[in-house]
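Fold these two proteins, one after the other.
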Amino acid sequence: MNELDIAARLCIAAATGLAIGFEREWSGHATGPEARFAGIRTFMMTGGVGGIAGWLSSTGDWPLAVVLIAAAAAVAVAGYLAAARRNPSDLDGTTEIAAVMALAIGVVAGRGHLALASGSAAMVLFALGEKAGFRRFVSTVDEAEMRAALQFAVLALVVLPLLPTGPYGPYDAIRPRMIWTVVLILSGVNFAGYLARQALGAARGHLLTGAIGGLVSSTAVTFSYARQSRNEPTHSAPLAAGTIAACTVLLPRVAVVATAMNPEFGPRAALWLLGIFLAGVAVTAFAASRSRGDVADQPPAEGANPLQLGAAIRMALAFQAVIIVLEAARAWFGEIGVFATAALAGLTDMDALTLSMSRLSRDPNMADTAAAALVIGVVANTVLKGTVAAVLGGAAYRRKVVPALLILAVIGVITLLVLRGG
C-alpha cells in the first residue's frame, strides 16, 4: 500500500466527518445556548481519527486502533452526558450518535472500503436532513399500518428463517422457505399499494387510483370499474382510463417481481414485455385525454388489513400448485406443456405465473421459454379482463376498454411471433 492510497483513504474519512459536521452546524445544533458538543471541525477530526484507526487495523496494529476509537467514542459519550446534565429534559442524542457514525465511517474508509463509506455518509446526511419529513410521516401512520409493519417484520425476521429450504414432494417442487418468501413479496406489494393510496388520497380520480390499484390486482380493478360503469354511466371515460392504466401497471409489476425472484431473468422478462407496456402507456394516455369528468374513488376501508396476508398466502399456495403442474408439464410435454400451463395460469393468477417462470428461468436453457410463457400469460390475462369489461361494463365503458385491451393482446402476440421467431 503506497502513501498516496493511504492519504486518499484518510481524506475521504475526514471529508465524511466534515459533511456530517456541516449539516449539524447548519441546522443549528452546534451553536447557541442549546448547542451540542461538536461542530464542523470536531466532526472532521472525528472522521479523520476513524480513518487513521481503520488504516492501523488494516496493517495489524489493532491495539492502537482500538485506543483511538475508544478515545473518540468517549468524547461523544462525555458530550452527551454534559448536555443531559445541563438540560435534563433534552435527551436527544442525535448529534452524539452522528459523531459515532462519523467515527465508524472513518474506520470503514481507512480500511479501504471507500464506496461503502461514501454511501453510508450519504444515508446519515439524509437521515439528519429529513427530520421534519420523518416526523410528518410518523404522524400519518395509523394503528392498522403500524400493526401491519410489525406483522411484516415478524413474518420476515422470525418465521422465514425457521422454515426449511427443501426441496420436498413430487418433482422436488415444494420449497417451504421459497413459498414464504413469495408471501412476503406479495404482502410487501400490497402494503406499498395501501400506503400509496393513503399518501396520495382518494380524490385524484379514477386514472390515478386505477393505476395504484393495478399494483395489487388489475383484475380486481377491472371487475370494480366495470360494475361501477353500469351504475355511473356518465363516468365511463375516466373509469375506462383507470382500467387501462391498471392493466398497464401490471406489466412493470411483473418485471419487478421477476427481478426480485431472479435478478438475471428480470431484464429479459422486461424486454419481452416492453412492447405491450409501451402500447399500454400510449392507449392510457389517449383514453385519459378523451375522458371528461372525474369522481373520487373510495379510500381503503377503515380497519382494512394493509398486508392482505390471507390473499398473499392464497396466491403463494396457487404459486406452489402452478410450480408442480409446470414441472409435470415440462417433464411430460416439454416446452409446449409450459406454454399451455402459462395460458391457464394467466387467466387466474399472474403473480403465481411470474414467480413460477422466474424459478424456471434459473435453467439458462429455459430463460427464453419462461419469458415467452410470461407474455402468453399476460395475453391470456388481458383477454380475460377484456371479457369481464364486455360482460359487466356499461356500453360506453365497453366501447373504450375492449378495443384498448385487444390492442395490448395483439401486441403480445406480435411480440411472441417476433422474438420466438428470432
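Now the second one:
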Amino acid sequence: EAALTVTKLKMVNSQTAIKYLEEDLMKIEKQIEVLEAEKLKIKDQEKPNMEQILRRVRKLLEHPEEIFIRQIDPLKKAQFFASFFVKYPTYKDLSPGTQNAPLFTGVHPLFQLANLDKSLMVAPRGLEPLLPD
C-alpha cells in the first residue's frame, strides 16, 4: 500500500490530492510500525512447550485409531487420515480382489516407529504362565 501511495504521489499535481496521499502514507507507516511491534511481541511470547508436543506425538503414534474415531468434524477427520500417508493409496492398491498385490507401503515413516507387533504382556502367551525358577 505504501509503494502504491508513493507511485500515486509522483503522478498527482494537485496540492490537495498530494496532502491527502501524504496523510494516507503516514497512516500506512504507523500501521506497519504497530504490526511489526505486535509481531515481535508474539514472537517473544510464544515458545513451544516441547514436553506437551512430545506427549501429543506419542499419543498419536500409540493410539491413532482412537483419535481418528473420536474426531467428529469430517473435514478434520479427512485431514487426519491424510497425515497417515506419504503417498495416497489407489483403489487398485487396496482392492481385496487384486491378485499378488504387494503390501501398500505409502504409510508415513513416523508410524513405522510404533511397532505394533510387540505385545504389552510381560511373558509370552502360552498354555500356562511362565514361572521363575
